[in-house]
Write a structure and sequence with these properties.
Radius of gyration: 24 Å
Number of strands: 22
Order of helices and strands: HHEEEHHEEEEEEEEEEHEHEHEEEEEEE
Structural class: alpha+beta
Shape: globular
């Protein structure tokens, strides 16, 4: 392939990426704070995060042993791959698409890229912290929990397989300050038997909460969807903010992504402070429509779920999910047995929520 064709193919890929970044909700709600480079089909990059340090009382004497911040490395892999392959009439026509992308194939491909990656990132609702969900809780009956296996035996319960992945708490599962410690439903066996585990993906996730006996009250959080109306939607969003506040997540850079039906409710409720186009031109293309309860609100058809099964409305802080994407291969080739040429390109991407940052995300499981 000539240098001219190489330059055109690379320019085409760069233009798609540029338009993607201008339009993508995923890019706006995620961070790109990783070490490494996206350079092949399955790249691996490192996400660095640190444990909390303690402030100590000081009386002038020597301090005790120094805290170890325990830098943690989460590995993000670009496991998702999407390819483009299509005919072009000539290099001159291809060049015109790059110079004037609006209304052409290049804009269509950028839109497709945005839709696919937005759907992927907004589908990570299962990675919000156990305990950070708002919906209709299930709390019928009582439970006992085995100290070693995390096996939960219910009395008067009707557990279901749909509970797998949901947040679980029972009386007696509290920290030193008396705050609830949430676990995650790992497996379902019967209406009276489930197993729970620690709410982690990167570290050992075996249950470590100890024995709970005597028939304790419990909660399976947001087990089913909750209906929202123009009169109740604001309160539900405030609850999402409360979850983040309790986890001590910063109040800035918070976002909320809603489907059009929920956006309509917010407008009808009069709770949405509309975006001013002159001030927020750079993010309005991404679907930003205004602010509510300290969240920047984005509207997207890519929100997971539907109004029948329930929408998985995500809220969070920009630290919650790390996203990496890029074009790793691009080129122009002659069509064998035909006139003209063909363009092919490969984009890869991946996203990850490291364990320490699960608490920076929250979910509203709802319908209208």
């Amino acid at each position: 392939m000539s240098d001219y064709a190489i330059n055109l193919s690379e320019g085409f890929a760069q233009k798609i990426v540029k338009i993607y970044f201008e339009r993508s909700v995923a890019d706006e709600i995620a961070n790109h704070d990783y070490e490494g480079e996206i350079k092949d089909q399955q790249s691996k990059v490192n996400i660095l995060t640190f444990g909390a340090l303690e402030l100590r009382d000081y009386d002038g004497s020597n301090l005790a042993a120094a805290d170890d911040p325990q830098e943690s490395v989460g590995v993000l892999e670009t496991t998702q791959k999407k390819a483009y392959y299509f005919k072009i009439k000539s290099l001159d026509k291809f060049k015109s698409w790059i110079k004037n992308p609006e209304g052409t194939l290049i804009e269509t491909l950028a839109k497709k890229t945005k839709q696919v990656i937005d759907t992927y990132v907004l589908g990570l609702y299962g990675d919000v912290a156990a305990g950070n969900r708002v919906g209709t809780d299930y709390a019928t009956g009582t439970v006992t929990i085995d100290v070693t296996t995390g096996a939960v035996t219910g009395s008067g319960t009707t557990f279901t397989s749909a509970m797998v992945g949901k947040g679980f708490w029972a009386e007696g599962l509290e920290d030193a300050e008396g705050k609830p410690v949430w676990y995650r439903v790992k497996t379902y066996s019967s209406a009276t038997a489930i197993v729970i585990e620690n709410d982690s993906d990167d570290d050992v996730s075996a249950y470590d909460g100890g024995a709970i006996s005597g028939g304790a009250a419990y909660i399976v959080q947001a087990n089913t969807k909750v209906q929202v109306t123009k009169d109740t939607i604001y309160a539900k969003i405030v609850q999402l903010g409360e979850k983040l506040d309790e986890a001590e997540i910063p109040a800035d850079d918070r976002w909320l992504v809603v489907p059009p039906k929920i956006h309509t409710l917010l407008v009808q409720a009069g709770e949405l402070t509309p975006a001013i186009s002159e001030a927020y031109q750079s993010v309005i293309k991404k679907g930003y429509v205004g602010d509510v309860a300290s969240f920047m609100v984005f509207v997207s058809n890519r929100v997971a779920g539907n109004n029948t099964d329930g929408f998985h409305v995500l809220a969070g802080h920009k630290s919650w999910v790390t996203l990496a994407m890029g074009f790793v291969e691009t080129g122009i080739e002659d069509l064998i047995g035909n006139f003209g040429k063909a363009y092919k390109g490969l984009t890869v991407y991946g996203a990850k929520v490291v364990d320490e940052r699960r608490k920076a995300g929250a979910e509203l499981f709802c319908y209208v």
